[in-house]
Please model this.
Amino acid sequence: MKSAKSLSSFRLGGIHPPENKLSATSPILDLPLPALVTIPVTQNLGAPAKVIVKKGDAVLVGQIIAAAGGFVSANTHSSVSGTVAKITDEVDSSGYKRPTITIKVEGDDWIEGVDLSDALVTDLGLTNQEMMERIVTAGIVGLGGAAFPSHVKLTPPKGKSCDVLIINGVECEPYLTADHRLMLEQGAELIVGIKILMQLLNSSRAVIGIENNKRDAIKQLEQLLESESGIEVTPLKVQYPQGGEKQLINATIGKEVPAGALPIEVGAVVHNVGTIVAIYHAVMKGRPLVERIITVTGKKITKPANFRVRIGTPVSHLIEAVGGLPMGSGKVINGGPMMGRALTTLDAPVVKGSSGILVMDGSESIRREAVACIRCAKCIDSCPMGLAPYLLKIWGERSELERAEDELVMDCIECGSCSFTCPANLPLLDYIRLAKQGVGRMLRERSKS
Model:
């Protein structure tokens, strides 16, 4: 294993927030099914899915209940067996009402053709087309948070090729440990999944990037790969936000993705470890994406844990499983403290992109009073994209969208490093997100004309 001095990382910016990996030694537990699941119809970036069931229908686990609305879209499946209770708009983790399908849980009966055993399957003799069809049918999206349909990433544009598959095992968000546990407990499945992706991408090299605070996972995967060729583990310096695609590419293979470009421009494709294990299950087991691993944690939580959770499970059900909401809790965050967002209701459901639930004490969640910017440039120094966050904040606050666009606001990955380092306590990321939303709308209108 590399020494700390020889560990690589990305070139620009970065910070070192307290890690608080309270659940790192907690094994993955299967969360009991709730009485009801509320499944958002669309859980992917791209075109919305279309509901294909109606109230009163009986459904099985793995049955498609909302079909993909195009190539850049993904199927949504029932995560339980039971009866469709209602199809309506409900508040999800974003705080907005979205179309959802609520199912009364009556059992755990799966669709036919799914292998539910734990036996490792390494080869079914499938063609590339057959494997891709299984991935599409299973509704696999990026489980690192972006929820981009995985089959799209596995279909490089004409004239582009993947020289290296990069596997994101960084999990740099403080508190979160779901990916860490997945690498420890399902490393063999991960490696088979990597081989599937290498075949589909016609790539002869794969690199697994893992930060050096997960030495047990690094050692585990290195041992599993001793007799393999073409797949390597790269220990990385602990530095947030190393899990960002462009930062991970820079850290692992030393290349920089140009502004506005995709990783394929430098011959790379990046997938999260959870996504790859889900692809293994889809291809080798015929399992649709109906569950994922989630960390439930917080300094005052009685027993922080990592759970295997069915999609659509209410957040309140997860919190009950770790001892309930502590007295004096201030916020419940969907995700980690850096990029996550506060929930407006504990009835919000788990979705494909949910990585963690963080309960923050009232004293932790109070925002400090903002004062005037002193032009210290700490936000610039910490930005991993080389942007000027204090300027982007001004243009967002003033709704000067053209100036925000000129300052490359759409390149912001919303990591929160700028807000974390700001001595003036300015809500930099809040205004930058506002600017991104405005510029996004402007670009969509521009494309129509």
Summary: The domain at 33-107 is CATH 2.40.50.100 (OB fold (Dihydrolipoamide Acetyltransferase, E2P)).
